[in-house]
Amino acid sequence: MTATGEVLLKVENLSVEFDTPRGPVRAVDGVSWQVRAGEMLAILGESGSGKSVSTQALTGILEMPPGRIVSGTAEYRGADLIQMTTKERRKVVGDRITMVFQDSLSALNPVQSVGTQIAECYRVHRGMSKRDAMKKAAEMLDQVRIPAAAKRVGDYPHEFSGGMRQRVMLAMALALDPDVLIADEPTTALDVTVQAQILELIAELQAERDMGVVLITHDLGVVSDVADNVVVMYAGHVVERAATAEALENPVHPYTEGLLGSMPSAELKGRELPTIPGTPPSLHAIPSGCAFRTRCPIAVDDCAADVPPLLTIAPGREAACIRRTSLVAKEAV
Amino acid sequence: MIRFVLRRALAAVPIGVLVTLGVFALVFAMPGDPLRELAGDKPIPAAVLAAKRAQYHLDDPFIVQYLLSMKDILTGHFGTTFAGADIADQLRLRIPVTLKLTLLANAVQWTLGLFFGIYAGFKRNGWVDRSLLLATLVLLAVPGLVAYFAAQYLFGVELKWFPVSGVLEGFPHAYLLPALVIGVLGFAGLARLLRTSIVETVNADFVKTARAKGLGEQRVLWRHILPNALLPVVTFIGLDLAGMFGGAIITESIFNLPGLGQFMFQAIKLKEGGVVVLLSTLAFISFILINLLIDLLYGVLDPRVRNV
């Protein structure tokens, strides 16, 4: 818990359902987290764990229907984004809270120059003239370290490399100097060296601006490199919340443990990489009680009874596992 | 850009030779004697017949006839029809008729197609969308011939809203009925293509980005969705516009509009190879030009295919 800045975005008890032909499924179930100024919060989880859906729901860009927010609040400086009218929300999302997406080739409009797309932020939210907005766009490209930015402002997305495109996305997201940046798997489509550059860039720009960053990822390596705190999600639930260093050194939830165990490392050289047995449950058939129990090495009969609550086991440290939380509680006594 | 146009023009030459040769061969292969057909039941003196045959080179071998026709076309000496009309004059009179009909029909088709396509695309599964699907199936199932005669009978003969045939009432009144029928028969395909294209584009990631930028729905629609969704439609419109001449043969004959289509119909009936090839060449050139324009337009709309 290094960050002590103002709480910028506070999500509480957020639940999102999708209507499907086979009935409603709950993709996000009672999720809570918060991000402070200057903090980088990682939301870690595999595909389908609800990590992207939760942020898309609170920013209002989730397709609704079929999506539906069942409960919860998402407060930006005390104002609930979910209760806002679309018009009010548009003044916050895109201005004070901005987003970066995974695949920059499909996330940028292919028939508009990158300059036009960045300038659009200034034109719509700041009412700038076309020329001023384009000038600012070129400045932004320069800030995200795109070489010869002034010349490239009229180029189209397909004329950039993957890493450069992601920088363009970043320039667009940071154009209005937002308070919160939600980066939805920003490095997934990039190769490893470019990944590191982009993460470094995000961290640098964050430090310059003292903004809160929500980094959605399935990559533990990414988390350990840059995140201050981490929220681990499994099947729509938060299963563990901790400072990054603690979660990596001393995971409490067996799922986090399993994820760490399956990370390649020097000690495991030449041996088969351990994996978590089984596959994530279909959202149509989430096991009763703890969703992870069918894959859990330490599951007992009690695990099937109730959904384990997220319990505080130390300051800033929470986990949802009846086996581990009771254990730690006993140890603490 | 200039290189692109030149390359296209060069590529058109061999295709043009094949097309004209093929068309000429088809006319040549048709049974019957054109001059006897022209004369009808009246007996023609053998000497007149021989003179006429020589004038139109009807006794020369196929390839010689073809080359002579092409020479006339390329040098602009179109000559006269078998019936004695000056072909250049005919073209001057007939091209505006066909252009008026085609452009009016396309205006109807595009207006309806774009309007319903965009509307159905943005209000998916609404009643307009559902009716459009049904209308498309019905319209596609109705043969053009039936629709033309039915419309002519209902709106021309019975209700008397439009002239039954001919161009005596001038533009646009005389052209309205055939143009409307062509437009209505054709708009459904355009609308469905646009609808599908919009539905695909709406789910694209960059639309999500646009929403995440806090843009209003109208701006997302006109600046981000439509410019992308219209790309496949541009290609469709080009092909469709070029194909209009084929449709004109039937429509102009039914509604008795003295355009190129009707000219073509008469020429085919009389086995006038020269005229048929001339008109085919005209159609071919306009086809090439329209497609070239569409390709250039496509490059303007989509930066990804520029300079190819």
Automatic annotation (TrEMBL), chain A:
Its main location: membrane. Pfam families: ABC_tran, oligo_HPY. It is found in: Cell membrane. InterPro entries: AAA+_ATPase, ABC_Ni/Peptide_Import, ABC_transporter-like_ATP-bd, ABC_transporter-like_CS, Oligopep_ABC_C, P-loop_NTPase. It is a peripheral membrane protein. The keyword Transport applies. Gene3D superfamilies: P-loop containing nucleotide triphosphate hydrolases (3.40.50.300). Signal peptide: none annotated. It comes from the Bacteria. The keyword Cell membrane applies. One of its GO terms (molecular function) is ATP binding. SMART domains: AAA (SM00382). Keywords: ATP-binding, Cell membrane, Membrane, Nucleotide-binding, Transport. Residues 9-260 form the ABC transporter domain. Belongs to the ABC transporter superfamily. This is Oligopeptide transport system ATP-binding protein.
TrEMBL record, chain B:
The keyword Membrane applies. This is Peptide/nickel transport system permease protein/oligopeptide transport system permease protein. It is found in: Cell membrane. It comes from Kribbella pratensis. Residues 95-294 form the ABC transmembrane type-1 domain. Belongs to the binding-protein-dependent transport system permease family. Coiled coil: none annotated. SUPFAM superfamilies: MetI-like. The chain crosses the membrane at residues 9-30, 101-120, 132-155, 175-194, 229-255, 275-301. InterPro entries: BPD_transp_1_N, MetI-like, MetI-like_sf. The keyword Cytoplasm does not apply. It is a multi-pass membrane protein. PANTHER family: INNER MEMBRANE ABC TRANSPORTER, OLIGOPEPTIDE TRANSPORT SYSTEM PERMEASE PROTEIN APPB. The lineage of its organism: Bacteria, Bacillati, Actinomycetota, Actinomycetes, Propionibacteriales. Keywords: Cell membrane, Membrane, Transmembrane, Transmembrane helix, Transport.
